[in-house]
Amino acid sequence: xxxxxxxxxxxxxxxxxxxxxxxxxxxxxxxxxxxxxxxxxxxxxxxxxxxxxxxxxxxxxxxxxxxxxxxxxxxxxxxxxxxxxxxxxxxxxxxxxxxxxxxxxxxxxxxxxxxxxxxxxxxxxxxxxxxxxxxxxxxxxxxxxxxxxxxxxxxxxxxxxxxxxxxxxxxxxxxxxxxxxxxxxxxxxxxxxxxxxxxxxx
Length: 202
Prior knowledge:
The protein contains four helices and nine strands, in the order ββααββαββββαβ. By secondary structure, the chain is an alpha+beta fold. It has a single domain (7-200), classed as Protein Transport Mog1p, Chain A, CATH 3.40.1000.
């Protein structure tokens, strides 16, 4: 059990990258794209690649900006194609307090979250008990969300930091249906990533 956490580490699947949402996002995006474009055959016309790179860079910048707007500290997403297609999944990590009426201790709050969430369950991650929930969400055009998604949240108390929590929020479109096999396989992938979670100490 960690006495006090100063951060965390994760082992990512091949093709996934971390983009810090609060500071350093532009530098991280540039480094990711530099590395990926170096892998392309050298005989490809650079003038044709430039607009493609600019499009990808714009999408990554917008994703990082949206994550930052939502209070995230890190954004994780796949930047490598699978069978010629992008992997329809991502997750963000946020830090903050959890307002729960009448619950103060982490164990009480976890119990409250499990009871109040869809598909909620208590989980132990690197020696700390938190809450995991999973649900299928429909489209929400008013929020700019045109498709349904499957979402998984992990909520973990930070050891040694009373009232501070980490929230890991995963989302996937699957192959167009949040209940399809692709969505469920990607959820399993995210759970596997969370199994590699470790607290970092000072």
